[in-house]
Design goal:
Blueprint lengths: L3 H23 L2 E7 L8 E5 H4 L3 H15 L4 H27 L1 H4 L1 H8 L4 H7 E6 L2 H22 L31 H10 L6
Antiparallel strand pairs: 1-2, 1-3
């Protein structure tokens, strides 16, 4: 069981880790595409995440920025940020799932660059096969983690520790005499200070 004191750093580290995994996956090869042979050697293309899921980098960077905002957020803002983290997770899941469901379609930009062909039908006809790598699955897992962490942030927002005592205001008490230990006689300044604190000087 995670104590309230450890909830905040644990969840913030989870947000950073999930966003970092998504960003790492985005930089790697997601699919290996083989173009249809035309009497010459078959051409092989490595399709990276920036082609297969171009929006993933913005989602991952937004997650990292959100982690920084969580470190200073109050309860209400913390809950809103948790919802945003969950939405970012859903977006990452969709980006990875679309590439996994249709690797040839996700590779269309790379095929167009290599062959000069444009259009869905033309690019699909130019591809003989497409093999997925491990990295889009990692991106999918990162999105699921972002979704779960965002929901946990919302559920535990009120249990996060508040500010430490170093930031709390200090209430000044009347000075005492060093020899007698008795408080010095009240004067007009003390009465004004008492009014400021809400004390009744006539009591």
């Amino acid at each position: 069981m995670i104590t309230p004191r450890r909830i905040k750093p644990t969840l913030i580290l989870a947000v950073i880790a999930a966003s970092g995994l998504a960003l790492l996956a985005w930089t790697q090869v997601w699919a290996t595409v083989r173009l249809a042979a035309d009497g010459t050697a078959q051409q092989v293309l490595d399709v990276t995440g920036n082609i297969a899921a171009p929006g993933l980098t913005a989602l991952a960077l937004a997650g990292l920025a959100l982690a920084g905002a969580l470190t200073i957020a109050g309860v209400v803002i913390r809950t809103i940020l948790g919802l945003l983290e969950a939405l970012l997770g859903v977006s990452v899941i969709l980006s990875a799932a679309l590439a996994l469901a249709d690797p040839i379609g996700a590779s269309a930009a790379a095929v167009t660059t290599a062959t000069g062909l444009a259009g869905v039908d033309s690019t699909r006809s130019a591809v003989s096969s497409a093999e997925l790598t491990f990295w889009p699955f990692l991106a999918l897992a990162a999105g699921i983690l972002m979704l779960i962490v965002g929901l946990v942030v919302c559920a535990t927002a009120r249990r996060w520790p508040g500010p430490t005592t170093r930031y709390e205001s200090t209430r000044l008490e009347p000075a005492t005499d060093a020899t007698t230990g008795q408080g010095r006689p009240r004067d007009a300044v003390d009465d004004w200070d008492g009014l400021t604190r809400g004390d009744d000087p006539t009591v």
